[in-house]
Amino acid sequence: MISCPCEKEIRELVERGQWPQASPPELRNHAANCRTCADLVLVAGAFQRARTVTVAAAKPPSPGAIWWRAQLRSRQQAFERIQRPLIGAQVFSLAAVLLAIAGFIAFQARHGLAWLDWAGKASQSAALHTGSLSSANTSGSASGLLFFVIVAAATFALVAGVAVYFATERNH
Amino acid sequence: MPWDFALPNTLASEADATAQHTAAHVDNSAFAGFYERSARPLWAYLVRASCDATLADDLMQESYVRFLCAQGAPSLADDGEVAARLYLFRIATNLLHDHWRRPRASSIEELPEEVFSADSGAEQIEAQAELGPALRNMKPRERQLLWLAHAEGYSHREIAQVTGLATASIRLLLFRARRKLARILRQEIQPAGGSQ
Known about the structure:
Oligomer: heterodimer
Largest interface: A-B, 46 and 59 residues
Mean pLDDT of chain B: 79
Strand content of chain B: under 5%
Structural class of chain A: mainly alpha
Number of domains of chain B: 2
Mean pLDDT of chain A: 79
């Protein structure tokens, strides 16, 4: 790479549109003999002319339209930022519900699947049309337990979700 | 579960507040002035670097939208218009690079330069004839560097800020690109001069 000490001066003159009129004769002679400066004059001159024409050809939309689009985009981004903890809370509550269901199944499996026993008895009694007091009692206690577990799991999920939402919200 | 239906007003008001905060580095009237002064040069840069007027329209609008939405953008009041303009050109440059990186059926290099399609005057045709074919033989990076240096008059340091390249590399790349373009322009001029 060959740099020339006259490069800066010539570049400034070309950019101001004063080349070659305002340049001293010795600088013009130098540019005619120096390849770096000759390239500079040729290229910078072409770009200056191209810029004038291209800038004049531009038809930009109104700044108001751009501003409005930016406001919409900002609002959308802000909305997404605010929704992020909500999505986290939803995921957490779903995980909590799944965990509760898994726990319930594990509990039932350990205690002999009483509800399956009850279900079998209930279907049997329905098929035979015999109302026995003992099976009704079993059915009542099993469905009560199931209802209690579901309500507890749902409450836990809801409270956990809201707690996570407020916790992450404070961080933002 | 769509929680935003349960809390629509809260979310909307918070979103509004945050949106106002994100565009806080520039107010509407200051932006209008800045836009009037910078939109045409930015479009010219994009159209000459991409050789595609439609793409330049899209990228110019996207650049301003991103500039307004960016939280780290320089403030027109505090940092000045020069810094804001450099930041804007940097956004536009990154958008151009993203566009070129995207896979497509035809290369950007193969696209014709239809910049001045309908209402091209004699001067426009002359300028296009002078620089258009020559620029098509240049790489996109070379077109960018040459435009920023010789049309926008940016220093090597400023070009480095816009393109993300090292200042030392700019000097060398610019020198090579200028030499290449000068050779192409001379080749174009010589046959025309020889035929007269």
